Amino acid sequence: MISRRDFLHTSLAIGCTGLGCVALSGCSTLSASIQTGQEKDNTAMSAGRFGLVVDVEKYKKSASFSLIASVCHKAHNIPRIPDDKQAIQWIREADYKACFSEAERQHVGIPSLDVKLPVMCNHCETPACVTVCPTQATFKRPDGIVEMDYHRCIGCRFCMAACPYDARSFNFVDPKPYIDQVTPNYPTRTDGVVEKCNFCVERLTQGLEPLCVEASGGSILFGDLDDPTSEVSQAIVSGTVLTRSEELGVEPGVKYLFREGHNND
Amino acid sequence: MYKSGRVLAFIAVFLLLVSFPFLAAFGNAGSDPVYDLSVQTSDATKVKCVESTDYMKSSHMKLLQQWRDDVVRNGQNDFISSNGQAIPMSLDDTCLNCHTDKEAFCDSCHSYSGVTMDCWDCHGTNSPDAKK
Q1: ipTM score of complex
Q2: C-alpha B118 chain-centroid distance
Q3: CATH number at residue A109
Q4: DSSP code of A125?
Q5: Do A150 and B122 touch (CB under 8 A)?
Q6: Nearest residue of B to residue A150 by CA position?
Q7: How many domains does chain A have?
Q8: Residue B44 gets which letter from DSSP?
Q9: Which of A6, A71, A177, A219 is a plausible cystine mate for A58, CB 3.0–4.6 Å?
Q10: How far apart are CA A159 and CA A175, in angstroms?
């Protein structure tokens, strides 16, 4: 490992050299040389773009939403606020029919299915919340995760208005009194900030998968959507995939996979 | 002089009022902040801070800000200290792991220095006093 200071010095040196090159030739050399300066952490999970794939039939058969929600909410110190209008949710359930249009359901060959699907932040490719945030408190990481920087959030709630998926919650009250038992290794929040699912970034850095994936009995997959050999990419091509409100063009990173429907076509 | 007695009295009262804060604090300035290092000196790994004590005294807030941005915005994990040690960047799990009593350590020095910080609104839930 190199120290931060050395890293910056090296980057500066490489950057200057790069700039010199740009002056002489095209600008492709610059981005290439910066890439090589990046340090890699072996244990952390990395990706071009992280994504989730919900295997719908398997989820219906073998997953328990209450278990999934409870591990997520417990680990992230999410309060249980009795008033529904002020509730904080990182993951919730939505009716199959509410998630997808008639045409989409016809397309996968399953017009109706008695299942509630898990829905959470879609970590969009072109996230509307990031565009509207006046303080860059919400931003897109290079690995595709749309992350919240609670230290910068001013609670304006533009992101909540912009999000087509209703994935964000606002802390109207101080959440701490509503947390049964605080999990020590994740910070709590305070009133006046917006929060949402973070794809468990604090676990990814330790090489662990998101908790909903771990608790799903194998019905939710996680990995690099950009890598064609990854489990998620292979799953996507094994059936038909829907994403919520596809027509908006925000390219959600949470995909719903229909294997059997595809076979029935 | 017209009504000089009253004017002089008024000036005396005025001077007294203005200098009151200085008189009241006379002799108190320069006393050391009462904070408790509260670190387990028996544990060999806990006798030194993440950086030199002088640096920590003057710049721990900058270090914390750097950690915050490195973790949250740059997706990094470890801080490499000037002596080459890799230390996980976490306010709760690193700083408060050694400085276990944040009220006696951080808060007492801050109140002495008149510093307010909002970190404990969200952090520091690890310590026993978190649930008030």
Answers
A1: 0.75
A2: 12
A3: 3.30.70.20
A4: S
A5: yes
A6: B72
A7: 1
A8: G
A9: A219
A10: 20
**Is A250 contained in some domain?**
yes
CB A167 within 8 A of CB A92: no
Residues in chain B: 132
The per-residue pLDDT for range A206-257, each reduced to its tens digit, is 899 999 999 999 999 999 999 999 999 999 999 999 999 999 999 999 999 9
- Quickly tell me which residue has 């200098």 as its tokens: B19
- Hey, CA dihedral for A71, A76, A82, A88, is it positive or negative? negative
What is d(CA B132, CA B130) in angstroms, rounded to the nearest whole number?
6
Instruction: Kindly state the DSSP code that residue B12 receives in the 8-state scheme.
Output: H
| Residue A113, amino acid | L
Residue A264, domain member (yes or no):
no
Q: Do B125 and A184 touch (CB under 8 A)?
A: yes
Q: Residue A250: phi, psi to the nearest 5?
A: -85, -5
In a domain, A40, yes or no: yes
User: Which of A1, A151, A185 shows the shortest C-beta gap to B68?
Assistant: A151
Beta strands A254-258; A50-55: pairing state: parallel
Residue A22 lies in a domain: yes
What are the backbone dihedrals phi and psi of residue B115, each rounded to the nearest 5 degrees, phi first?
-100, 135
Residue pLDDT, tens place only, A5-14: 676 666 666 6
Query: Residue B122 is nearest to which of A44, A149, A189, comparing CB atoms?
Result: A189
Strands (E), chain B: 78-80, 86-88
Specify burial of residue B46 (Cβ count, 10 A radius: 0-12, 13-18, 19+): middle
Query: How many other C-beta atoms are found inside a 10 Å radius of the C-beta of residue A49?
Result: 20
Range of the domain at A45: 4-259
Look at the pTM and tell me if it is higher than 0.95. Answer: no
Name the residue facing B93 among A139, A147, A185 (closest C-beta).
A185
Q: How far apart are CA B54 and CA B34, in angstroms?
A: 17
Of A233, A48, A251, A232, residue with least CA distance to A142? A48
Q: What is the 3-state secondary structure (H, E, C) of A156-168?
A: CCHHHHHCCCCCC
Q: Count CB atoms within 10 A of the CB of residue B12.
A: 10
